[in-house]
Amino acid sequence: RHVKAKATLHTVSARDGHAIKVWEFFPDGRNDETLPAIVYYHGGGYALTYASTHVAAVDDYANTLGCRVFLVDYRLMPHNPFPKGFNDCCDVLAWVVDSASRLRVDAKRVVAMGDSAGGGMTATVAQWAKDNGKPLAGQLMIYPVIDRTCSSWSAQNFPDTPLWNSIGNSKMWQVYLQDVDANNPPPYAAAGDREDLSGLAPAYLDNAEFDPLRDEGAAYARRLQAAGVPVEIHEPKGTMHGYDTVLASAITQDTVARRKAWLKRIFSKEVS
């Protein structure tokens, strides 16, 4: 695939001194402009790094939306369970916001975005951002992991769905939160644990129909709405986890167009 945007590699120092790799994608010919930004957290069950599909997607967002996209190479389990990878994600967001002038980023138009485990990172980072005074213009969650208890109907009844299933989902949480007391989890271990969702950034949530994460994503969207957060939810029928990597699909094309339309509205400050 021809890469239309340009990319550069940054190294960001984590709070414990770890060097976090962050790829920045930006539209060709516009690197001297101050642009809105997406901080992107890739999926992979908290265990796998970003894939070529992630690179293609963030390249496309940078080029077609005229924004910078920071793809975060956060630490992964099993060797780095919560909170190391989560802290990396927060530290990169803080770096983008605090270094906005040097990075030529409009700090008032920064969106957190991610898919699957990265969607769960997006949700928890958005909570952390509110609590720590790091402004977010929006949060875009793509079939996010939300519920560490795996107690929803879909989380328990899709043992054989393609790409992601109930069995793998449960095991993921066990390993990711291996150092966490399940009866007294710390803040941000899982987005669904938080009781007060008021004041969080405007949200967009994509779901897949045949996906163990479906019900927890929908429930989180409803809770955000009940807390007064502007929410848009997209639930295309006949889809499975990762369906949007099939770029030739009309469903994928519609889904991506909807995400871009929402991001454009966020960047133009039409959603608040």
Architecture overview:
This protein is of the alpha/beta class. Helix content is about 35%, strand content about 20%. The protein has 8 helices and 8 strands, in the order E-E-E-H-E-H-H-E-H-E-H-H-E-H-E-H. An 8-stranded mixed sheet has the order 1-2-4-3-5-6-7-8, with helices on both faces. Helix 2 packs across helix 4 (about 115-130). The model has no long low-confidence stretch (mean pLDDT about 95).
Lay out the secondary structure.
Elements: E1 6-13, E2 19-26, E3 35-41, H1 52-65, E4 68-73, H2 84-98, H3 100-103, E5 105-115, H4 117-131, E6 138-142, H5 153-157, H6 166-176, E7 203-206, H7 214-226, E8 231-234, H8 250-267
Parallel strand pairs: 3-4, 3-5, 5-6, 6-7, 7-8
Antiparallel strand pairs: 1-2, 2-4
Helix pairs in contact: 2-4
Strand order, largest beta sheet: 1-2-4-3-5-6-7-8
| Unreliable runs | none
Order of helices and strands: EEEHEHHEHEHHEHEH
- Let me know the average pLDDT: 96
Keywords:
alpha/beta, 272 residues, 8 helices, 8 strands, 8-stranded mixed β-sheet, globular
Quickly describe the structure:
With 272 residues, the protein is α/β, with parallel strands linked by helices.
